[in-house]
Specification:
Blueprint lengths: L12 E2 L6 E2 H5 L3 E7 L5 H19 L2 E7 L3 H15 L7 E3 L4 H5 L14 E6 L5 E7 L7 H16 L2 E2 L10 E3 L5 H7 L5 E4 L2 E4 L5
Parallel strand pairs: 3-4, 4-5
Antiparallel strand pairs: 1-2, 3-6, 6-7, 8-9, 9-11, 10-11
Helix pairs in contact: 2-3
Length: about 210
């Protein structure tokens, strides 16, 4: 069964391009972006791995680690990483799980029989430091993933975990946010002393809280 939001992400031990990964130990107290690939030497995924390698500093700023997965063996991953560096201009700088026995794919529900009974679908999981699944996405094979959007989601999750706000459509870091409906106006006066804009009683926007 596929993981649902707020489920605990399963722990596992599996081989990778950086040696055996004990997932919880590796994750530590970081956020994690885990994303899967159907197999090695696939064109769209090659571009994705290059983009993530370039964006690694942005994930690190957010206390987030990235980790990929493909069902081929580590030796195959090593060959693929050379192609990634050659064609994308970025060296693989994060682990790529070698899920040769599909143990992790099965744990995370990455194999959808209607798509294929052997290959992992192109899934993404954002997992918080408490090992809770906070986002799941599944992409078609023909569409490259938008990793800037994953950074945006992490920004939103970290902000809304800390403050009683939600983020509107297309929100970006630094833009106005929404006061959650569970907060009354009296409570909002203490939380947001500089005031807010009430568009409707259920829709109140306020400058993004700092800190």
């Amino acid at each position: 069964m596929a993981l649902q939001l707020n489920d605990v992400a399963p722990d596992f031990t599996q081989d990778s391009t950086e040696g055996p990964i004990h997932f919880y130990d590796w994750a530590g107290d970081s956020w994690v972006v885990l994303f899967s690939h159907p197999k090695d030497f696939t064109p769209v995924c090659t571009t994705e791995l290059g983009v993530v390698a370039k964006l690694k500093p942005e994930f690190q700023k957010r206390n987030a680690k990235v980790i990929g997965l493909s069902v081929d063996a580590a030796a195959s991953h090593t060959g693929w990483s050379k192609d990634i560096e050659e064609t994308q201009g970025a060296k693989l700088n994060f682990p790529l799980i070698a899920d040769h026995d599909r143990k992790v794919a099965d744990l995370y529900g990455m194999i959808h029989p209607n798509a294929s009974d052997t290959m992992t679908v192109r899934s993404v999981f954002i997992i918080d430091p408490a090992h809770k699944v906070r986002l799941t996405l599944t992409y078609p094979a023909s569409t490259g993933r938008n990793f800037d959007e994953l950074l945006r989601v992490i920004d939103s999750l970290q902000l809304t975990d800390k403050h009683k706000v939600a983020t509107p459509a297309n929100w970006r870091q630094g833009e106005d946010v929404i006061i959650v409906t569970s907060v009354t106006n009296d409570q909002a006066k203490d939380l947001f002393p500089d005031g807010w804009t009430e568009h409707k009683p259920y829709l109140r926007t306020v400058k993004q809280p700092v800190g």
